[in-house]
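Annotated sample (chain length 420).
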Amino acid sequence: MDAMNSNASITDAERPAAVRYTREAGVAIQVRSLSRRWWFWAGAAVVLLVVYRVVAGLGRDRDQSAEAAAAIRNRSIPVSAAAAKRGDLNLYLTEIGTVTPFKTVTVHTRVDGELVKVLFKEGQMVKEGDLLAEIDPRPYQVQLTQAEGQMARDRASLINARSQLARYKQLYTQNIVARQDLDNQQSLAGQYEGAVQNDQGLIDSAKLNLTYCRITSPINGRVGLRLVDPGNIVHAADTQGLMVITQLQPIAVIFSIPEDDLPRVQKAMSNTAQLSVDVYDRALKNQLATGTLLTLDNEIDPSTGTVKLKASFPNQDNALFPNQFVNAKLLVETRRDAVLVPIASVQRSSQGAFVYVVKPDQTVEMRPVKVDAAQGGTAAIASGLNPGELVVVEGTDKLRQGAKVSVQLAANPISAGATQ
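Output written by the structure step:
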């Protein structure tokens, strides 16, 4: 009993502490619960704040995008434009050609002898018949003197033989001489006649050799470099020659065209008496001369599939030089009264060719067109465009149907090859 009472008294004594512990534990639980709730609502507030900011930002971005799109729609795209014009378009065939002289002569001596004089300067322009050089004429002068002396002797013998023949004829009629003697005298007179003719030939040959001692120009042209100096012994059989003379005025250009273009050229030749040919330098920038087509070759080269053409040029300014490489432009056709635009304005798509036409409200319209022909930087429009309409030349890569533009007129919109 005492023991039991003792335990009960301890429990009763310790009961206030347990109650306190229990109460403190409950308070701690409540505090933790309140803390979790506070963090939950704080996190929810943060999430709401983030969502609000994101939504507000999207709204601002949407507004800014709309404003940017509106600004882009209202912004003018700078372009360069040119007005379509009505005029003539010349169509050319452009091929590489070679300047070729009509005549090139290597001057040789026609007699043997010493070259005593050279009367030309290298590169000099000479005319036909101008004296160029001289061969020592003395040996041929001696030959002429000998031939003339032989001629005088044989002529005297001929005169004597003819006199004797006349007397023999009289004596024969009187039966004083025989027929054989008359025939012999007549034969002798004929021999002297032949000797005189032979002497005349020797005289003419000697005179001709004297003429050949003076070497003259056979053509008009330019003398090249001197090949033989004075003092040398030259021969008619020499292969080198004394000089080379090349005709420069007029001069020819030979070029080739593909056989597929031959019908166009033949048709043009039948319609026009003389086809114009313009010659440019190798860069195709500077025009050197203008001439006319002379003829076509008589066959097509089977190895290249081309046919040669020859054109003539006056070349008064010596702009063309033998064996020079040039670009020949043959005028084969002219499109009359065509609508002309710079070829840079013509765009291509899967539906065909089109141009951007600038409308009065400074917007552009995609206009389908039909290109009839093109040459150089110019195109002839068959349909879809009227003269005077502005077409965009530069800045087409940024354009769309209805785009607003700010226009600057292009300088020199129509290139060479078009006559307006």
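Annotation: The helical segments are 2-74, 138-173, 179-212, 262-271.
Annotation: The mean pLDDT is 85.
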